[in-house]
Amino acid sequence: MAANSAPCGHCNFCVRNRPNLCDDLLFNNGAYAEFIRIPSRIVERNTYELPAHVSYHDAALAEPLACVLKGLDDITYTRGDTAVVIGLGPIGSMFVRMAKVAGLRVIAVGRRKVQTERALALGADEVVITHQTPNAVEAVRALTGGHGAEVVIEAVGKPETWHWSVAMLAKGGTVNFFGGCPADTKVLLDTNLLHYSEITCKASFHHTPDLMRRALEHISRGDITAASFVNSEEPLIRLPEVMQHLMSHNGHLKTAILP
After folding, report:
1. 206, 18 in Cβ contact below 8 A?
2. Those residues with Cβ within 8 angstroms of residue 52's Cβ, 6 or more apart along the chain or in another chain
3. What's the pLDDT score for residue 144?
4. Which residues contact residue 86 at a Cβ distance below 8 angstroms, ignoring those fewer than 6 apart?
5. Residue 63, pLDDT score
6. Does the reported pTM lie above 0.90?
7. Cα(152)–Cα(102) distance, integer angstroms
8. Domains located in the chain, CATH noted
């Protein structure tokens, strides 16, 4: 299984062990095809032999899962801490699952009941349905005894939920603005809150070869499976219809495209 990128290995970021920020990060996009040529650098640095018991459906989760693991690596937490995950699409749902595997108490915040039910099935301890809750920040603080959460992961990519993330944090907490907002978006954060509560703000981009290996290890152990994320299968010839469906149906998870 080939990843979708590979770092150069010798730029300033690679030698500082931050290959996801490589100045010459080589991407291989456009995999919706019967055949695809894999660039030699990706073959050499980011391609893996799948264990016999790992299905193609499960293996296809490795790239987004590696990005999720990067997001968790970039925050500071201790087992038993409370983590809030805002946004329960495929990535947010992966964060719920892997935060639970990491030993965190998880509060999942989503717009719809079907999303929060899925989050509970993946291990969430409590949920907040924003369409039924006048104030999501107050709801999270109520579930944390008024203190807030040690970790908040924003997996939506909207200024409103970026603001929620900071307001949901406990003193000394860490937020990961994982959801990228549209270009030219700006947010205003309360500097008094950031300073006097010693809040740490992080953001995470992409993955690394090491994280791809770790993602496959989690998949191989069964920590995460496609059964929780892939709710449809379609042949390659129907890809345009699948894309149109994804654009018009919020809440959909993943469709397996079978060449």
Report:
1. no
2. none
3. 98
4. 92, 109, 136, 152, 153, 154, 155, 156, 161, 164, 165, 168
5. 97
6. yes
7. 15
8. 5-64+207-228 (no CATH), 77-202 (3.40.50.720)
